[in-house]
Amino acid sequence: MSRDGFSPVTGAISLRDVGVHFGTGRHAVQAVQGASFDIAPGEFVSVLGPSGCGKSTLLGVLAGFTKPSSGEALVDGLPVERPGAERAVVFQQPTLFPWKRVLANVAFGPKMRGVGREERKRIAADILREVGLADFHHHFPVQLSGGMQQRVSLARVLVNRPRVLLMDEPFGALDAQTRLQMQELLLELWAEHRITVLFVTHDIDEALFLGDRVLVFSQRPGRIMADFRIELPRPRTPALLTSDHFVYLKRRCLGLLRPEATSTIDGTSQPVFAGDIEQSSP
Hints:
Blueprint: E1 13-22, E2 29-39, E3 44-48, H1 55-63, E4 70-75, E5 78-79, E6 87-90, H2 102-112, H3 117-130, H4 146-158, E7 164-168, H5 176-193, E8 196-201, H6 204-210, E9 213-217, E10 224-229, H7 244-257, H8 276-279
Parallel strand pairs: 3-8, 3-9, 6-7, 7-8
Antiparallel strand pairs: 1-2, 1-4, 4-5, 9-10
Helix pairs in contact: 2-3, 2-4, 3-4, 6-7
């Protein structure tokens, strides 16, 4: 267990043949089809796919926002039926209370749990220090940059000590330099707390740089075309982005995501699973 009480033995995710469709009749849309995978406690998994392929819908199923049309989603062996504090969500746009100062935004969750005023201020201040905002307690969100607002969003979910962190393209609206800084910060926080992370993105570099594994989704209806492990050393540094193996993995992912690509990197009819890419790498 980490020093802040985050437990690495909880946060297991299982999806069993999950499908999601919206609407009826000729207006029906199949968003996700037959998604199955397991994520170990403390694992960091990237979900990569083109826009509109059902990645965010899948995240919504795990968050408890969307009920699957078929199959089931489980966290620590229990079915996901509604939103819960053990599953925190970070969206692309920060969802902060504009009328509350930074410290009050972060302390809101503990306040709802009945934590006393001084204690919740202390733990909120500790988390803000971890995300590099120790000097911004009294600022309002509008006074912060986009990257700083996302730091507050991270602090606001981490202070609740979730078992699973669900991230829906949280850095997509940031400039390239800030985005890389936020990726490095996220990896530092993950290394410290070892929360299970499911990170949705359509950016190949981001998926490979962050993840232990990458799940590659097809065009809608979203199906898992590949599930492979990223054998890159940790801690990750920007130097990896130009390494031979990183470029090799990126080329493979590009092949998967091309509209004309078949369901595997080699044009066969079977999915690509963990290890397949590494076995054929240079």
